[in-house]
Design goal:
The protein has 439 residues and is mostly helical. Helices cover 72% and strands 3% of the residues.
Length: 439
């Protein structure tokens, strides 16, 4: 897996991602503690609302930002967005009212909604080989997991000597370091595409996504991931400090256990994905999440919460890591930024539902019932994925072109032409507006 770090451009991008993520992880821990300081027992509601605002920014801003990114040089765009994020986080330690948290979170995440899809869409261009890209996805997942593991541990250590407000400074440093690393490399700019209106560029990724069966299944996977992840992120501080009466350090330990499970999965997945289909791996991850959430009703203390959070982290990574492979398989290079932005927006629309739901249910019906409801959502998502995502999912698909001229150069793509029908690697584009039905 680490061999791909010999590519200097990817090595710098990966380092930028890792440093920024650790800083963001410190801010995530600090945000939960800030919510508890401002709202006490209602911290779950405040944190759930703040994270819902984050999701609104992602859902609304990401497709528009991706449309603009088709015309903008990637390096200046990524650097400017890193600097904006650093400036906003710099203000978070001075927050004294809940509404101020909401405003700053919206500004911060609007910048992230522009940064993340552009960053993700750059990696396939830097690493064009499928094997290298698969390892980059696992390494990227590992970076997220290192953040989940290292950030809470680092936060717990820092909290012994400084106020949690000081944790936000780590995020500022992370974003500035990320910007410096992006500046240090030359990035490929978006491939030229046909001139399209801003509306068409904004909606193109969504149309490709929703017309592709494997991506319909990915959307169901995203809902299951969001149901389990929201339960962990929103209610960990409530369970540990509210229900168990433990310390901030114990909250950090629980989040670290979640990150540890996800890290283990990321380390072993590359070898498994070489032998087993993405569909089987991802659906197994959803099933693990559903079972884990049901088990949450039996948690009595930190000694039982830590292994459960480890299992949920494991299922999260198993279900989520191969997503980039599906997006790459399902698009042409020029459509990749739009499709990554669509995944970013739609997956976060799932979080927009589950974040406030996890917080509100935890306060109104209790944590045990919340575990059951979230498990139900994950189970329904599993059934939907099984239904929408065909078991047989080849890249090369036979299809008809009844309205295509006989001398159109597209007929030369692929082979096995029979009359008005031929076969090639199939993706949704201007010549292929619908997925072929099985014959």
């Amino acid at each position: 897996m680490l061999q791909i770090l010999s590519n200097r451009t990817y090595r710098h991008l990966f380092a930028a991602q890792l440093i920024a993520l650790i800083g963001t992880g410190l801010a995530t821990v600090a945000l939960g503690l800030l919510a508890f300081e401002l709202a006490g027992p209602d911290a779950g509601v405040v944190l759930g609302t703040a994270l819902a605002i984050k999701m609104i920014a992602f859902v609304v801003v990401a497709p528009v930002a991706a449309a603009l990114a088709e015309r903008l040089p990637r390096r200046p765009m990524l650097v400017c967005l890193d600097l904006v994020r650093a400036a906003v986080v710099l203000l978070l330690p001075f927050v004294t009212e809940v509404w101020q948290v909401y405003v700053l979170i919206f500004l911060l995440q609007s910048a992230s909604a522009g940064f993340t899809p552009a960053f993700q869409a750059t990696i396939p261009d830097v690493l064009p080989e499928e094997k290298d890209y698969t390892r980059a996805l696992s390494l990227s997942r590992l970076a997220y997991d290192l953040e989940s593991l290292v950030s809470p541990i680092l936060a717990a250590a820092l909290l012994t000597v400084v106020s949690f407000h000081s944790l936000f400074a780590g995020t500022v440093v992370g974003f500035l370091a990320s910007a410096a690393l992006v500046v240090s490399v030359t990035l490929p700019n978006p491939q030229a595409s046909a001139h399209r209106s801003i509306y068409e560029r904004t909606t193109r990724g969504l149309r490709i996504y929703l017309a592709t069966p494997r991506l319909q299944g990915l959307l169901a996977v995203s809902m299951a991931v969001a149901a389990s992840g929201a339960m962990v992120i929103v209610n960990t501080v409530v369970i540990v400090q509210g229900e168990f009466g433990l310390t901030q350090e114990s909250t950090a330990m629980a989040l670290a256990a979640y990150g540890g499970g996800s890290m283990v999965a990321a380390l072993v997945l590359p070898g498994i994905l070489d032998r087993i289909q993405d569909r089987s791996i991802m659906l197994a991850g959803i099933a693990l999440l559903a079972v884990g959430l049901v088990s949450g009703t039996m948690v009595q203390g930190l000694d039982s919460l830590l292994p459960l959070w480890f299992v949920l982290g494991l299922g999260y990574s198993v279900a989520q890591t191969p997503a980039g492979r599906l997006l790459r398989r399902s698009s042409r290079p020029e459509d990749r930024p739009a499709l990554f932005a669509a995944q970013f927006a739609l997956s976060h629309a799932c979080w927009l539902i589950t974040y406030p739901l996890a917080g509100w249910l935890g306060v109104t019906v209790g944590l045990s019932q919340t575990f059951v409801i979230m498990a139900g959502i994950a189970t329904i998502a599993l059934a939907a994925a099984l239904s929408m995502w065909p078991t047989s999912d080849p890249d090369v698909v036979g299809h008809d072109h009844h309205g295509l001229a006989e001398d159109d150069p597209h007929w030369d793509e692929g082979g096995h032409r029979q009359g008005r029908r031929h076969a090639h690697r199939f993706v949704i584009d201007n010549l292929h507006l619908e997925w072929p039905r099985e014959r």
